[in-house]
Amino acid sequence: MPTAGPDDLKRSYPDRQLFHFHSAIAGGEISYLCAPGETDAATKARAAKAHAAYEAEVRRYGDTFAEALVGALQSGAAPGTAANKVNSESDAWARAAALEIESDFQCLPVAAPGVGLGD
User: For the whole model, what pTM was predicted?
Assistant: First the structure.
């Protein structure tokens, strides 16, 4: 199945700027496409705020993910079944979190380790 990466989305949203931040929570880098602000500095500052908010979401979700996986395993689900269920919930969370960050900051998380879109 083909996937879209940050460069593909950048072509679809040419007015947006692409920012990359190191992720202390997920490791690696998280990228955001941000709507232009009044100045480049204002856009970058908003991107940094979006990143801080997204990192907080990822941190909160990590705890939820771990609890859900352990709960599924303790309920007797086979490891593969438990992982599939939790992964589908993770995909739904990633979409909702990305849309929330877009709504609040006009910055869309487009690439991150384990969430969002891959490069």
Answer: 0.74
